[in-house]
Design brief:
Elements lengths: L5 H23 L5 H14 L3 E4 L3 E4 L1 H11 L2 H11 L10 H24 L6 H27 L7 H71 L1 H20 L7 H8 L11 H4 L7 H7 L2 H10 L5 H13 L20 H16 L10 H11 L6 H16 L16
Antiparallel strand pairs: 1-2
Helix pairs in contact: 1-4, 1-5, 2-3, 2-4, 2-7, 3-4, 3-5, 3-7, 4-5, 5-6, 6-7, 7-8, 8-9, 8-14, 9-13, 12-13, 13-14, 14-15, 15-16
The structure holds fe (ii) ion (FE2).
Fe (ii) ion binds next to loops.
Length: 421
Amino acid sequence: MRQKLFKPYAVCCAAAALLFQIASFMAGGFSFDFRLILILILLLVNASYQVVSVESMSSFSITYPLLFPAIAFFSPAWASALAAFGAFSADEFRLDWPIFVYNRGALGLSAGLSALAFHALGGTAALPTALPGAVLVYSAVNHGLFVFGSYLRFSDSKFEWFFLVNVAKTLIPSVALSALFFMAYTRYDILGLIVAFFLFVVVRSGALLGHLEANYRLSLIRALLRATHAKDPTLMRHLENVAYYSKRLAKACRYPFWKLHILDEAAYFHDIGKLEIDDSILKKAGKLTPEEYEEMQSHPVRGIEFLKEVNLPPSHKAIVESIAGYHHERYDGTGYPHGLKGEEIPLEARIVAVADTWDAMVGERCYRKPMPIAEAIAELRRVKGTQLDPELVELFIQIIENDHQDRQGVRVFNQNPVHVL
Ligand SMILES: [Fe+2]
């Protein structure tokens, strides 16, 4: 029923924007400047790119920063008209007409009201307060109209709080970029705005390339997980569980937060060398012979050899190789393949070693039943300082005990393949 109301809603938005522009032109006069045409052209060029990612978590439009000099130096009516007719791409012609009409109205109203707010807050003379205030009004009006429009269009639409968090994340980059474009325009007129815009386009292209690279890397991990699952579903569950616990332990030991996502990806590769170990050894139910054990112990070196073939960024490569190559080193120096000792072992590898040991004890294996949690904790305590980093072990035990106190229990070990990425 409420879907039927979207069309009148879209027309109302567009009519309100049009009325706003007419009233504003009548009140402030119709002074035209050729710069408005140039800003319109920049907006139209920009509309073909539309959004840029902010740390892969959210996105913001550059429309507002481009529009901002018009808001600051021309009338609210022009700001509203520019937003309505400058911020659309050819793709929009393929949409149903109510959506096209709604977009014009929502953008026109958001920009017009934002311009009013900017001047009411003191305009260019009070930029530090007027600019954030104007961005806030733009964002609030635009998203408010959008949320209500979605409520009308989609019967299953419901309000999600994370939506507000994403909106908040876009505010700071919008304010910063608006200030930058404002300064470029104030100092070098429209030429400054054009140069700033194209510089931004170049930077954005770089960011998009980084984004594509990250997507490529994730698709590679997914492909590897598929291959791993095909060979050995138990091994894949083990990789998932180790990645899960490694990330939690890394957070608890204040591992640098900007490297957390790399560690998360890298933990999936820790046993990748096992893909080269023969199934007769990997899946053997009984005890391994010394030769078979030696073959099994070659998996860290095989892992590093395997990863050398993969073209990863240097920051990722170092962490991935540390984990794959050193997760069987022991804290007392009796591990393999290099016999590194204590903090000679990279932190990432010490973290993964704890998670790996834990999952080896409590996870299902072809050669034995899972160990009860209390016994596994006691075993961790027994090997701390000899096999594992003692500080990391204590932090890890706290995590496990908290899980139990919270009645969340430890992670449920998946019996079916789960795509966690
Ligand atoms: Fe391993």
